[in-house]
Amino acid sequence: MASLGSSVKNSKRVCLFYCNEMKDLAERIASQSDAIELRSITWRTFEDGFPNLFISNAHGIRGQHVAFLASFSSPGVIFEQLSVIYALPKLFVSSFTLVLPFFPTGTSERMEDEGDVATAFTLARILSNTPVPRGGPTSLVIFDIHALQERFYFGDNILPCFESGIPLLLNRLQQLPDSDNISLAFPDDGAWKRFHKQLQHFPMIVCAKVREGDQRNVRIKEGDPAGRHVVIVDDLVQSGGTLTECQKVLAKHGAQKISAYVTHGIFPNRSWQRFNHDKGGSPENGMTYFWITDSCPQTVKEVKDKKPFEVLSLAAPIAAALQI
Q1: Were both Cys, which of 44, 48, 132, 294 would link to 52 (CB 3.0–4.6 Å)?
Q2: CATH class of the structural domain 2-163
Q3: What predicted TM-score, i.e. pTM, was given to this entire model?
């Protein structure tokens, strides 16, 4: 007990604010450490629809380490949260950490034709203009951003801290009864380059999209799935088309079971419904597990208690990141 008390005493005490969407995750983060205290914001709107916001006990956070847990789940909520993000550092706080588990415009990071707008750069510039608190630049915690080079889109007033959900996956894989029969598959070279160094002790399979006439089909580029429980790994999923194509190819080549992991389960228009549970049967018909994190709270609510989905919470790694 003495060591536990000493640990809490030595921890940085953090006042954690959060948007409404992230209430459940914020409570899980606070339960990880006595050094994290939840604080509230009143989220209202005026009759014209613009935000009417109030930060409770603003004087009470002077000189404190302050964090805000954000969710930019749609363009409509970004403005009200930015208003809070810009306000908190100006309340004489000691330091400010912005936790944005999912960076939503990360896939729009490059131009393929003149006139394309790289909105990842736009959002990075907006966040880079966060006012500097008394202790120095704002820390920005993001999990598995789509492209690591997006670090360089941010200005000097903000310090991007890129974390990963892969350790959560590794821990879960070790708990499986067939943990010694796991192979990992990547839907493309980009996913392999991104994650293979964190997963080196597993046999690996790399898929690729190959142009055949007017179609682009998924093929296995490296590795053998025969007889293995294959887990497809990627940073995010939208419609799920690429994952289902990978599933078909892996099943065709003899995979015993197929599961998937993505850090960010976006699933617009309830596209998660296309993923069925295999019910112990053929991997062609469904997945054994589909792991996501709680970075996208709306998806978490939709897939609750629905197989094959299982949520791995970011609460512990976020609590740890708040101590950096």
Answers
A1: 44
A2: alpha beta
A3: 0.93
Beta 182-186 vs 65-69: how paired, if at all? unpaired
- Sequence ranges of the domains in the chain: 2-163, 166-312
| Mean pLDDT of successive 10-residue stretches along the chain, which has 324 residues | 53 97 99 97 97 96 98 96 99 98 85 83 96 97 91 94 98 98 96 94 94 79 97 96 95 97 97 95 94 98 97 99 96
Question: What was the pLDDT predicted at 106?
Answer: 80
